[in-house]
Design goal:
The protein is mostly helical and 86 residues long. The chain has one domain (2-85). It has helices at residues 2-26, 35-57, 62-85. Helix 1 (2-26) runs parallel beside helix 3 (62-85) and helix 2 runs antiparallel to helix 3 (62-85). The N and C termini lie far apart (47 Å). 22% of the residues are buried. It comes from [Anoxybacillus] calidus. GO terms for molecular function: aminoacyl-tRNA ligase activity.
Length: 86
């Protein structure tokens, strides 16, 4: 049973990390004085989420794997969007 619990915990961490990165992205305001600080924090959140996804993929079920790949795709879209606006 611990293996199943570890899979679920790893998946949930990746899911939470992705949601937090999305929230930071959605709240990013280009014309605020602290934009650079916001952007730095967003990049940190995205990097942490990628790491959590990679960790979860090591133990994921097939269903989880498909969702994790979607999380990765969502994060890659954020990175691409941010890179275009810099």
């Amino acid at each position: 049973m611990p293996y199943h619990k570890d899979k679920q915990q790893a998946f949930q961490a990746a899911q939470q990390g992705t949601m937090e990165a999305k929230e930071w992205y959605e709240n990013l305001v280009h014309d605020r004085a602290d934009y650079g600080s916001q952007l730095k924090h967003l990049k940190q959140e995205v990097n942490e989420a990628f790491e959590q996804i990679n960790n979860a993929l090591e133990v994921a079920s097939e269903t989880q794997r498909a969702q994790l790949e979607q999380f990765r795709s969502d994060l890659e879209a954020i990175v691409s969007e941010v890179n275009q606006t810099e």
